[in-house]
Structure formats: structure tokens, C-alpha cells
Design goal:
The chain is α/β, with parallel strands linked by helices and 556 residues long. It has helices at 28-39, 56-59, 80-85, 95-108, 198-210, 234-242, 244-252, 272-285, 301-317, 322-327, 395-398, 410-413, 447-468, 477-492, 522-534; strands at 18-24, 44-47, 115-116, 121-127, 132-137, 142-150, 172-175, 190-194, 213-218, 224-226, 340-342, 354-358, 364-368, 371-374, 377-380, 383-386, 401-403, 432-434, 472-475, 540-543. It has 15 helices and 20 strands. Strands 1, 2, 3, 4, 5, 6, 17 and 18 form an eight-stranded mixed β-sheet that branches. The structure holds flavin-adenine dinucleotide (FAD) and 3-acetylpyridine adenine dinucleotide.
């Protein structure tokens, strides 16, 4: 048995059904949350649907999958030993390397013995009398805990569009977010990739190299910046390792938790030559940070027009055929959809075996046994790859039947869109927490520091409760509504609402629209939540009532 396999029987079989805390998910968030709860002396368990730890990095094994935040920054900071002993081999590590890192974390901190794999949490109901959560899984287990933490991921509820006829398809189909562990051999195959977001853009160049023919079905063109990925410079690795404290401080001091120095004025204020030089330097550096070349690019229409024009011209220069280049050029504000980071994406369209199918011109009508029918004709294919994304931020939370005080369902509480205090807690749902939930910076920042910040903040809250004899904590309604209004207000000062993005919930038919993350940046967010903590967790109701229950294991 390898260290990645499950080596413990289920909790119920071991007679363990009562916990101080149950964590759902074993990705970056679930693993660190479990570790933190253990540090606090709690009896905790994590429950994970997958048959291994790693979350995103367990599920997304498509060709080309890698991070788009540099690995030195996209990694945990909570353990000095961990960051000193790990060596990243590339500027942007590929999925297998990030997965090995997370497996290493699970082993190094001996987390596996408290992780139940291959198990989905299906329901969690709060019982007011005992102030506990009753948690059910798809294996029929019934567990109980005082605290309930959803670490289920912002991008884990994958979406296969409801195309007519998919069941009739004779070939194979895959979603990038549930890629077979053994890989897929496209040699000699005619392949269609539907979707040109980050997953499509990473996988398309590699699939094109292997497949006999590739059709890319594009609904919306995307902005992508080259990664210029390459092996990690050993000197950079060594220097960072020896100065991690400084490096992590730069992360804390940055707007999106990635070390970067931006300009001190807006792009539209700069003279054209300087602006061009700044954009050129950001382009040469590559990646997501292009969006931060000036601080106002996502806030100011004029500045955004400058960067959009610059990047569009760069995109067009990468494609030989001018009319094809036009079809591949986005028309919404730069960065308003999640910016993609690519390796050879646009050049792929210069290959003879690649055809772009614009679904705006020739809409997809149905899947047929031999392929895909569009209004422009049939595409004969052997394999369909759905790079069609996720029901982001709320999908995995609402997939569980969560009921709070008085049986209120989270699905009902959020019927008009998610309302959450700080993206961490929801009124009516005591002792329940969401790591990087809607209303926190989460997906607008480097996610690993965002996760660590939430887990650390929760660790401090739980310690405060223990020290002051509080049994329950619950977000109050008014502060929650005020926070939601603030999230909306900041979002409306940005250009994000101008694109049909998953940030806005517009990628899922029928989903309530609204900008979900907190767009004020990680520095402002951290200051707010730390201030709230310093004021005795204002906006939270803390209750010291001893509930009518037998607490066998509770140590907080
Ligand atoms: P996840 O890693 O999604 O883990 C959640 C886990 O919860 C999953 O394993 C899931 O199976 C489990 N789960 C969900 N519901 C249930 C249930 N009901 N019962 C049991 N288990 C459940 N972010 C960045 O900042 N930088 C990047 O470069 C980056 N690259 C990405 C690349 C890809 C392909 C994708 C899809 C996302 C990327 N992200 C990136 C975002 C990424 O999701 C986060 O960085 C991070 O990995 C999230 O960790 P998590 O633990 O919060 O969630
Ligand atoms: O998903 P997406 P993703 N018919 O939603 C199209 C992170 N990530 O998996 O734009 C036809 O971005 C859809 O079209 P449109 C990152 O945060 C990071 O690619 O909605 N097309 C779009 O083109 C990212 O943002 C990396 O018009 C349909 C595509 O499918 C997030 O995860 C790598 C359709 C979906 O793009 C999600 O990325 C991967 C339909 N019915 C993921 N429905 C890194 O690089 C959807 N589409 C680190």
C-alpha cells in the first residue's frame, strides 16, 4: 500500500462518531484545517470524496495542468521546516508535483489517520438542543461534531453542460476536472475540446500535438498571458528558502498575495511611452501579474482600455491568420474574466491539424453518436473534452443538504445569492465555517495564503472561545447584510461585472447572478477581519450556554 492510499477503516467502523470538528474536503484547505484543529487539541476528522488527498490537484490531471501563481508563493507558509525542505523544480509546478507536495504534507504532519477518503458528505443538520452538527455521508455513516467546516473548494463542483444527445455519443468524453488517473492517449484521434478557459488553454496545445485532428469549440475568446515557464533557478530557490520570512511578508503586503511591485499611479496617468514600457516588462515577466502592472487596471475603464489594446495586439501577433486572430481576440475588459496563463496557446492555431469553431457564429446544437452537431455542420470526433468549468464558490457548498438553526436550509438562505459574514460564517448556521467562502478574497488572490489566513483566523477564534467559555459562535444578520453590501459596492467599482464570468455566476444556467468574491484586496480584508477579532469578534454572537449534550471529546 502506498502512502497515497487510504489505510484506515471508516470512522463509524472504528466506533468513532463524535468529534469536536468535522472538516469536509482534503485539499489545501482541508489539510491545513485538520492540522490546525489538531494543534488546538481537538478531536477532528476530514471527509473527502476523492480516493486521495490534494483536492484540485487530485482531480485535475489533464495535460498541461499546472499552477499559474508561482510555486514559491503558491505553497504553505505555516511550517518553517516544510518550506525549508521542499524544492520546487519549475517556476510554475505541474499538477503531479503539486499533488506530491500535498501528499508529502499529509504524511509529514501525520494527517492521513484522521482523513476518511472516498466518502462524500451528503447532509449536515444543526441540532439546537445539543448545539452539535449531525453529519451524514454517502456511505450511510452518521457522525456528530461541535464544529463543522466546509473546506470544499471554490472550483470543485464541475459542470458538464446539459447538451442534448450526450448519452448517444459513441466515443469517449472527459471533464478536465475529473481526469482519468491513467491519462488519455489522443494519438490518432479526432478530438473536440469544448471551452477555452484556463483548463482549455492549458490542455489544448498538448492535445493538439498528439491528436490527429483537434476542434476547439470556443464560446468566448480569452485573454491569456504567456507563462514563460521553465526550470526553477536553483539560486532563486536557495535564496528564497533562506529568506522565506521576507518573501512571505511580501505576500502579506501585496494586493493579491503574490509578491509584486506595482506602479504608484494609474495607467491612464502615465505617458504613452512609459506605459508601453511597463506593459512590455510585465508581458516579458509573464503570467497573472500582468493584471497588476498598474494598480487601477481592473478599476479604471481608461487604464483597462490601454492594457486591453496592448494585450490584444500581442495575441494577434501570435496567430498567422488575421481573420482567425480576430475570432480569438476578446472584447470584454482585460482581467474581467479570470486571466489565463498559457504556453503556446495562440500559436496552436497555426497548426494544420487544429480548427477553431466559434460557437458564437455556429452554435452547438447537440451531441450526436459520431460527434458534435453545430449550425455550421457536423464535427466527426472520437473524443470530447469538456473544459467547461465549475459551479464556482457556491456549487460545492449547496450540493450538501446543510440545515442550520430551526432547520433552515442553506439553499433557501442563499436562494437570492450567497450572503456570508466575511466569507467565513453564515447567520443561522452556528459553529459552521466556510474556508474561502463567497464574500472573501479567495479566487481573486493567491489561494494558498488566502486559505492559511482563514484557517489561522478560525484557529484564533476557537482559542478565544475556549479561553472565554463560549460554546457557540454565529454570524449576526445585520453585519452579514452589511458585509454583503460592501462586497457588492466594491465589485461595482470594478470592471469585473462587465464580463460573463464564473465570478458573476453567469457560467451556470439559472444561477443567481452576483459578484461573489471580495474585490478589495487581501490587505484590506486582513485588516478588517483582524480588527473584528480584536474587538471580541464583533458581528458574531458568542454564546456560553452549556448545551444539553454529553461532550465526550470536547477539549475546547
Ligand atoms: P479543493 O482543492 O477544491 O478541495 C476541496 C475538496 O473537497 C475536493 O477534493 C473535493 O473532492 C472535496 N469535496 C467537495 N465536496 C465534498 C463533499 N460533499 N464531501 C466530501 N468531499 C467533498 N489557485 C491559485 O491561487 N493558483 C493557481 O495556480 C491555481 N490553479 C488552479 C488550477 C486548476 C486546474 C484549478 C481547478 C484551480 C486552481 N486554483 C488555483 C484554485 C484552487 O482550487 C485553489 O488554489 C486550491 O487548490 C483550493 O483548495 P481547497 O482545499 O480550498 O479546495
Ligand atoms: O473553467 P472556465 P476552467 N457551451 O469557467 C466554456 C482555475 N484554473 O476549468 O467563457 C460552450 O474558466 C466557457 O465559455 P464562456 C482558474 O481560476 C486555473 O477553464 O463561459 N462553452 C469557457 O470558455 C479558472 O478561471 C488554472 O463563454 C461553454 C469554458 O467553457 C477556473 O479554475 C487552470 C459552455 C470554461 O472556462 C476555471 O477554469 C485551470 C457551454 N454550455 C483552472 N459552458 C491555471 O492555469 C462553459 N463553456 C492555474
Amino acid at each position: 500500500m502506498t502512502s497515497t492510499q487510504q489505510d484506515v477503516p471508516c470512522r463509524e467502523a472504528r466506533g468513532e462518531t463524535e468529534f469536536d470538528a468535522i472538516v469536509v474536503g482534503a485539499g489545501f484547505a482541508g489539510l491545513y484545517m485538520l492540522h490546525k484543529l489538531r494543534e488546538l487539541g481537538m478531536k477532528a476528522t476530514a471527509i473527502e470524496r476523492a480516493d486521495g488527498v490534494g483536492g484540485t490537484w487530485h482531480w485535475n490531471r489533464y495535460p498541461g495542468c499546472r499552477c499559474d501563481i508561482e510555486s514559491l508563493a503558491y505553497s504553505y507558509s505555516f511550517s518553517e521546516e516544510l518550506q525549508r525542505e521542499w524544492t520546487w523544480t519549475h517556476r510554475y509546478a505541474a499538477q503531479p508535483e503539486i499533488l506530491s507536495y500535498l501528499n508529502h504534507v499529509a504524511d509529514r504532519f501525520d494527517l492521513r489517520k484522521d482523513i476518511q477518503l472516498s466518502t462524500s458528505v451528503t447532509a449536515a443538520h444543526y441540532d439546537d438542543a445539543s448545539a452539535t452538527w449531525a453529519v451524514e455521508t454517502d456511505s450511510g455513516e452518521r457522525l456528530r461534531s461541535r464544529f463543522f467546516v466546509m473546506a470544499t473548494g471554490c472550483l470543485s463542483d464541475r459542470q458538464v453542460p446539459n447538451f442534448a444527445g450526450l448519452e448517444s455519443f459513441r466515443g469517449d468524453w472527459y471533464h478536465t476536472g475529473a481526469w482519468p488517473h491513467e491519462g488519455v492517449d489522443f494519438t490518432g484521434k479526432r478530438v473536440a475540446v469544448i471551452g477555452t478557459g484556463s483548463s482549455g488553454i492549458q490542455s489544448i496545445p498538448l492535445i493538439a500535438k498528439q491528436a490527429e485532428r483537434l476542434y476547439v469549440l470556443q464560446r468566448t475568446p480569452q485573454f491569456a498571458i504567456p507563462a514563460w515557464n521553465g526550470p526553477m533557478d536553483p539560486e532563486v530557490m536557495r535564496h528564497t528558502r533562506e529568506n522565506y520570512a521576507d518573501y512571505r511578508q511580501k505576500i502579506l503586503d501585496s494586493f493579491v498575495a503574490v509578491p509584486f511591485e506595482t506602479q504608484d499611479h494609474g495607467a491612464h496617468e502615465a505617458d504613452p511611452q512609459t506605459r508601453e514600457a511597463v506593459f512590455e516588462a510585465a508581458w516579458k515577466d509573464g503570467g497573472y501579474l500582468m493584471l497588476l502592472a498598474y494598480p487601477d487596471l481592473i478599476f479604471d475603464e481608461r487604464s483597462n482600455a490601454h492594457v486591453s489594446a496592448f494585450v490584444k495586439q500581442k495575441i494577434q501577433a501570435r496567430i498567422d491568420d488575421a481573420s482567425l486572430a480576430e475570432k480569438l481576440t476578446p472584447s470584454y475588459p482585460f482581467g474581467a474574466k479570470r486571466l489565463c496563463v498559457d504556453t503556446d496557446y495562440f500559436e496552436t492555431y497555426n497548426r494544420d491539424n487544429v480548427t477553431l469553431v466559434s460557437l458564437r457564429e455556429t452554435p452547438l446544437q447537440e451531441i450526436i453518436p459520431g460527434g458534435i452537431r453545430t449550425s455550421g455542420g457536423d464535427l466527426d470526433v472520437d473524443v470530447i473534452v469538456f473544459a467547461t468549468g465549475f459551479d464556482a464558490m457556491t456549487g460545492a457548498l449547496l450540493a450538501v443538504d446543510i440545515r442550520g438553526r430551526n432547520g433552515i436550509a442553506l439553499r433557501d438562505a442563499w436562494a437570492a445569492g450567497p450572503k456570508s459574514y466575511l466569507g467565513i460564517a453564515v447567520s443561522g448556521f452556528p459553529n459552521m465555517f466556510t474556508i474561502t467562502g463567497p464574500g472573501s478574497p479567495s479566487v481573486l488572490s493567491n489561494m494558498v495564503p488566502a486559505i492559511e489566513q482563514h484557517v489561522d483566523w478560525l484557529g484564533a477564534l476557537l482559542t478565544y472561545m475556549r479561553d472565554n467559555g463560549f460554546e457557540t459562535v454565529e454570524a449576526e444578520r445585520e453585519p452579514e447584510l452589511d458585509w454583503a453590501a460592501r462586497v457588492d459596492e466594491i465589485a461595482s467599482a470594478t470592471l469585473y461585472p462587465r464580463a460573463d464570468s464564473w465570478y458573476m455566476g453567469r457560467n451556470v444556467p439559472g444561477k443567481v447572478e452576483g459578484f461573489m468574491p471580495f474585490a478589495g484586496g487581501t490587505i484590506m480584508y486582513r485588516e478588517i477581519v483582524e480588527d473584528i477579532a480584536a474587538r471580541g469578534y464583533s458581528g458574531f454572537a458568542l454564546d456560553s450556554r452549556t448545551p444539553a449534550r454529553t461532550v465526550e471529546h470536547a477539549t475546547v
